[in-house]
């Protein structure tokens, strides 16, 4: 098991290095001159001498390989440069906004799990029942409604009409409800569908028949065996969505004026703030890699056959 974990951790390094190389290449192949972008963001009409001086400060006069190595060293020191707009370190800007995004991510995942697990499980073990029909309807609605439209709909009913929750911003738990539910709604549809299909598939497996012939109680079979194995695809989806929520909850953050990581990225794009864009892309890659690693370890704990299969192919 320890060998499997070590190999999974080692594989992260070349993938992250490839992400840094691609990011570096895309930025330097872009027609946007970082020096010009710096002065544009500062609303300064730069002369040729000022542009040359700024390129020298940014190290753009050096060979590309030297620039990449220097950038890589700074990245591993969590130094993504200085924002063109605020003149503050990008890492400080990102971490100051990460708390709000983490709150939104945790809130939406908790809602999605608490709703989708019981509905998906019951829909699987009670095929064609009322709860099954409801789960399929919920999955259809959740997959069809765009997040931005759902967010505005929640604001209209629960904030404007009923005055139950704040319209925008942060501060209290009431500010967190509407954006969390908006983010969780499509996840509920996805997880419910995945869990239902997995439960139906596992009910046809031989281990369920053997457990029943041994006289094991149906609740133990369903709860201890079927649910534990059937939830595996949902955990895989959870790992992918964790990265999406941490880095891609942009629309919801804009709709609810949530001061998070994604909204900061949108502002950086409009301002052509190159260091922020680069920091966002690299941090997003790191979050995706780490979340997938965590999911693999959880999967291995739930189903030890994963690590045994890994050893078989060595």
From TrEMBL:
CDD domains: TM_PBP2. It is a multi-pass membrane protein. It comes from the Bacteria. Pfam families: BPD_transp_1, BPD_transp_1_N. The chain crosses the membrane at residues 9-27, 102-125, 137-160, 172-191, 242-261, 281-302. Coiled coil: none annotated. SUPFAM superfamilies: MetI-like (SSF161098). Residues 98-299 form the ABC transmembrane type-1 domain. Keywords: Cell membrane, Ion transport, Membrane, Nickel, Nickel transport, Transmembrane, Transmembrane helix, Transport. It is found in: Cell membrane. InterPro entries: BPD_transp_1_N (IPR045621), MetI-like (IPR000515), MetI-like_sf (IPR035906), Nickel_NikB (IPR014156), Opp2B (IPR050045). The keyword Heme does not apply. The complex is composed of two ATP-binding proteins (NikD and NikE), two transmembrane proteins (NikB and NikC) and a solute-binding protein (NikA). Belongs to the binding-protein-dependent transport system permease family. OppBC subfamily. NCBIfam families: nickel_nikB, Opp2B. This is Nickel import system permease protein NikB. It comes from Halalkalibacter kiskunsagensis. The gene is nikB.
């Amino acid at each position: 098991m320890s060998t499997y974990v070590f190999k999974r951790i080692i594989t992260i390094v070349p993938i992250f290095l490839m992400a840094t190389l691609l990011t570096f290449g895309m930025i330097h192949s872009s027609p946007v001159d970082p020096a010009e972008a710096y002065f544009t963001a500062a609303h300064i009409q730069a002369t040729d001498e000022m542009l040359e001086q700024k390129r020298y400060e940014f190290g753009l006069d050096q060979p590309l390989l030297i620039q990449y190595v220097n950038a890589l060293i700074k990245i591993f020191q969590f130094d993504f440069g200085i924002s063109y707009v605020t003149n503050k370190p990008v890492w400080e800007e990102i971490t100051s906004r990460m708390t709000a995004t983490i709150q939104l991510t945790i809130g939406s995942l908790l809602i999605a799990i608490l709703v989708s697990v019981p509905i998906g499980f019951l829909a699987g073990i009670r095929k064609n029942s009322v709860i099954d029909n409801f789960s399929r309807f919920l999955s259809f609605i959740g997959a069809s409604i765009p997040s931005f439209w759902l967010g505005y709909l929640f604001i209209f009913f629960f904030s404007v009409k009923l005055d139950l929750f704040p319209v925008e911003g942060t501060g209290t738990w009431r500010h967190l409800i509407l954006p969390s539910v908006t983010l969780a709604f499509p996840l509920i549809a996805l997880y419910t569908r995945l869990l239902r299909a997995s439960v139906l598939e596992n009910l046809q497996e031989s281990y369920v028949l053997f457990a029943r012939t041994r006289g094991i109680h149906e609740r133990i079979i369903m709860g201890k065996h079927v649910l534990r194995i059937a939830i595996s695809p949902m955990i895989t989806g959870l790992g992918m969505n964790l990265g999406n929520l941490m880095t891609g909850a942009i629309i919801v953050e804009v709709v609810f004026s949530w001061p998070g990581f994604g909204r900061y990225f949108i502002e950086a794009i409009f301002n052509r703030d190159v260091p922020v864009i680069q920091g966002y892309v690299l941090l997003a890659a790191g979050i995706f890699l780490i979340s997938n690693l965590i999911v693999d370890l959880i999967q291995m704990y739930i189903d030890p056959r994963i690590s045994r299969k890994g050893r078989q192919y060595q």
